[in-house]
Amino acid sequence: MLITSVNIGKAETITHGNQSMTTGICKRPVTGPVAVTESGLHGDQILDSEHHGGVDQAVYAYSADDYDWWAGETGRDFVAGLFGENLTIRGLPSDLYIGDRFLIGDLVLEVTSARIPCGTLATRMSDRGFGLAFRKAERPGIYFRVLNSGAVSGGDSVTLVEGGGTVTVLDLFRFAYETSHDVENLQRILDAPIAARVRAKVEVVLDSLSAA
């Protein structure tokens, strides 16, 4: 795998129809090494800290190959950073296991969750229906926690170290939309090193099943 772009976001106001919001989703490619710590990339701004960022979702990566797929499906231009990712990576699989690790020089990242689309992404894409298209595509990109700080630059190679997990990124993506749940499967998800926000949602569903 190869990092084709490192992207940083500042606060910007975006508008589509009657929707207007100030967000950090508009990430732009930068040159040179960027420091990455447990809180994310240096200089990257997170405005909605309730739903984004934090140590378990410190870095978001999207596949350059999936951008090629979107361009072919829609006929639109898809440029690095458009989906709000920090790292655009050529060769990034869509369905890694939770707990898999990426080595980029001294930087060590661990897979924690999938990206679930929100209204901000639809506004960014100027398409109110884009969230549904993103769901159907099942190309969500991947969130990571930072296990060891380091620096990252465009052109860096990425080494995958498999963690031996049983829960995939797409398992978590599909969980977000499921309307019926199985206790055994929910417990399997909880046994993985998933992001704290996802864990809280799974625990709520599991508690409701147990109460029933």
Walk me through this protein's architecture.
This protein has 212 residues and is of the alpha+beta class. The protein has a single domain (2-165), classed as PK beta-barrel domain-like (M1 Pyruvate Kinase, Domain 3, Beta Barrel). It is built from six helices and 13 strands. The strands form three sheets. Strands 4-1-8-7-11-10-9-13 form an eight-stranded mixed sheet. The protein has a three-stranded antiparallel sheet with strand order 6-5-12, with no helix packed on it. It has a two-stranded antiparallel sheet with strand order 2-3. Strand 9 and strand 10 (107-114) form a beta hairpin. Helix 5 packs antiparallel against helix 6.
Helix content range of the residues, please? Answer: 25-40%
Distance, first to last CA: 46 Å
For the residues shown, what is the average pLDDT? 94
State the total count of DSSP E strands: 13
Query: Structural class of the secondary elements?
Result: alpha+beta
Query: What Rg is obtained from the alpha carbons, in whole angstroms?
Result: 17 Å
- CATH topology: the name is M1 Pyruvate Kinase, Domain 3
Poorly predicted residue ranges: none
Q: What's the arrangement of strands in the largest beta sheet? A: 4-1-8-7-11-10-9-13
CATH homologous superfamily title: PK beta-barrel domain-like
- Per CATH, which architecture? Beta Barrel
Task: Describe the sheet with the most strands.
Answer: 8 strands, mixed
Note the total helix count: 6
